[in-house]
Write a structure and sequence with these properties.
29% of the residues lie in helices and 27% in strands. It contains eight helices and seven strands.
């Protein structure tokens, strides 16, 4: 497989798709980010890739200026894969999602980890201050069309499953982490635990 063969197979990029990429956060991108409660952050250590979900109340990703975003890091399982990747390889990608909106916003750039207390304090929630924030310098931003969410009926509640279609988190971890003592918990207990430790 070669780039030339792929281009021959798919044809030329449309002028509109080629022209839609900008090198900053304009008023439309800013509004999209301010209404997004959820994004996916892709990082790499230069060899392997990781994606990490990020969610908080809308506007949790702060648009500091037209080329700078700030993302607070909330409590998790302390794997910190993404943070360690950024230290090794600063280039990142973001995908912003707004519930009920089919289009998504893609942002590419470079990142650095900041533990400045004033910046971290500005992103505290419920009295809990993040240990670090990630500062992203934007190099590209563009809207992605809504075909994928439409194909997957992502926002069509009539096509959502009536009940959870997979085992709960602890049941899966028990199978994946052979030999580890994993407690038995119901979905309700897991959700309560998650809610109690959000911040």
């Amino acid at each position: 497989m070669t780039p030339e063969y792929l281009r021959e197979l798919y044809g030329n990029i449309s002028p509109r798709a080629a022209a839609k990429t900008i090198d900053h956060i304009d008023i439309h991108c800013k509004k999209f980010i301010e209404h997004s409660p959820f994004c996916i952050l892709a990082t790499s250590d230069g060899k392997n890739l990781d994606v990490s979900p990020k969610g908080d109340p809308v506007s949790f990703v702060h648009v500091a200026d037209s080329n700078t975003l700030i993302i607070p890091d909330r409590p998790g399982n302390n794997r910190i894969d993404g943070l360690l990747n950024i230290i090794a390889h600063p280039f990142i990608a973001l995908l912003f999602i707004i519930p009920t909106v089919n289009e998504t916003l893609r942002v590419n750039g470079s990142a650095e980890i900041i533990d400045d207390m004033d910046i971290c304090l500005a992103h505290a929630i419920n009295g809990r201050t993040p240990l670090t924030v990630t500062r992203i310098t934007v190099s590209e931003a563009f809207l992605h069309c809504g075909k994928a969410p439409l194909r997957g009926a992502l926002w069509d509640s009539e096509k959502w499953p009536n009940k959870r279609p997979i085992p709960n988190l602890y049941e899966i971890i028990k199978d994946h982490a052979k030999g580890l003592n994993v407690p038995q918990k119901t979905n309700a207990e897991i959700e309560k635990q998650d809610i109690d430790t959000l911040y």
